[in-house]
Here is the input.
Amino acid sequence: MIQWEYLVIDSRFLPGGGKFKGKEKDIVDMYFTKIGHEGWEVISLDFRDVQRGYELVGLAKRLITKE
Here is the structure.
C-alpha cells in the first residue's frame, strides 16, 4: 500500500519572515529547491494578497519509504 506524508508550506516560516515584498526571489527558490531535494512535491499553492506584499500557503507530499 502506498503511503504519503504531507508538509504544510507557509511563507511566514521562510527565512526572513512572511511577506514576499522586498524578499529576494533567490530566497524563495532556495526554499523550494531544498524541500524538493528532501523529496517533497508541491501539490497546492495559494497566494494571499496582504498589506504591502504577498504570502503563500500550500501543501506538499512525499512518499513514505519503508526501510
